[in-house]
Amino acid sequence: MAEAAAALASRRALHFVFKVGNRFQTARFYRDLLGMKILRHEEFEEGCKASCNGPYDGKWSKTMVGYGPEDNHFVAELTYNYGIGDYKLGNDFMGLTLVSSQAVTNAKKSEWPVREIAEGIFETEAPGGYKFYLKNDSQPSSDPVLKVTLAVSDLCRSLHYWSDLLGMKVYEKDEEQQRALLGYADNQCKLELQGIKGAVDHGTAFGRIAFSCPKKELPDIEALMKKESQKILTPLVSLDTPGKATVQVVILADPDGHEICFVGDEAFQELSKMDPSGDKLLDDVSLAYLLITVPFAPVLTEQPQSMLGWGESP
């Protein structure tokens, strides 16, 4: 029992994957409004073996943004498929909640749409329609990202999956409100499950939540899911990033089809190191693609992150 508890305690919530259709506007939202940093940016010439960029085979990019490194922060992975300008939202992703009065101030100053839905809680949307909830308190020195909320069609069934099978601790449970809060550690971003009436629809914008664990646990996770007749989207596989560490992952799907990535922590810590050139890499490729796809685009004298309204899709 003690060994199993220690293994679960070594798991970490890493990031949530968002598909984005406009890197200019998206970068502005995360950098200028939320106040996050570009942690790293990577370009890929073909689709991922684990469908990290969705069901697309062409060129794509990955941009990691957050308030700090994934060693101790929950971050966002922004996936951009070249030539795909928008995605259909479903009802699966219900929001990401963070603490930052500065983000609330930034939204109001820049006239970004934001509304107070409860005392001290403001709702806004990232480009693409993804909902964010901003608590109007001073940003903590620890990770400001509190929770990711996902819709489920049967809370009891989902709790069995996430708690009994994946080992998450249940921090809160409200059967009347059909919600539960789970996590692997007190100081990590939590997963909130919110029951809805009817089926969960993932649209084409469906995301993916990622966790790390010791590499040796990956075969055990895969074996457990096989034993329990749960869905495995991608069996244990190695993923290469040019010039960086190769990581091993297992991709699962919960009973409602939410995608879950478990990645070997040892290699991931090497892969996820912050790249000080991340901002420049993102801005350079975004501007270059804009100039190619918009033939009469004016010469830009400002950095792309300060530009609102320029799309990347022709």
UniProtKB/TrEMBL annotation:
Assembly: Interacts with NUDT9.
Keyword line: Mitochondrion, Phosphoprotein, Repeat
Protein name from the UniProt record: Glyoxalase domain-containing protein 4
One Pfam family, short name: GLOD4_C
Family the UniProt entry places it in: Belongs to the glyoxalase I family.
Phosphoprotein found in the keyword field: yes
GO cellular component: mitochondrion
Domain VOC: 12-137, 144-265
InterPro entries given in the database record: GLOD4, GLOD4_C, GLOD4_dom, Glyas_Bleomycin-R_OHBP_Dase, VOC_core
Signal sequence bounds: none
